[in-house]
């Protein structure tokens, strides 16, 4: 775990590197922010936030631009939740099983909607 990396620093990285202005969920007893990196996909770049939920790894992708769909998906041994809030689309991904993806999504969404 990277110590001293908090929601303020993550928000700064999102703005500086990706021009994404969004609130970031605060660290808590359940959620640790580890890193923010760039991730490429078909339509360009998105932010990839590495987190842990109760010690289990998960990823939160922040894609500039809104999507009108909201879904819960199962992707080859992973669970994912997709939603839009403010001016961005969010994709939360975790390994299937150890993380209650719906609970994590509820926690993150209270800061991004």
How does this structure look, described?
The protein is 21% helix and 45% strand. By secondary structure, it is an alpha+beta fold. The N and C termini lie far apart (27 Å). The chain has a single domain (7-112), classed as Protein Transport Mog1p, Chain A, CATH 3.40.1000.20.
Name the descriptors.
113 residues; alpha+beta; Protein Transport Mog1p, Chain A; 6-stranded antiparallel β-sheet; 2 helices; 6 strands; globular
Instruction: List the secondary-structure elements in sequence, H or E.
Output: HEEEEEEH
Which fold name fills CATH's third level, the topology? Protein Transport Mog1p, Chain A
Low-confidence stretches: none
- For the record, the CATH architecture stands as 3-Layer(aba) Sandwich
In short, what is this structure?
By secondary structure, the chain is an alpha+beta fold.
Secondary structure blueprint with pairings:
Layout: H1 7-18, E1 31-41, E2 44-53, E3 56-64, E4 71-75, E5 78-85, E6 88-95, H2 101-112
Antiparallel strand pairs: 1-2, 2-3, 3-6, 4-5, 5-6
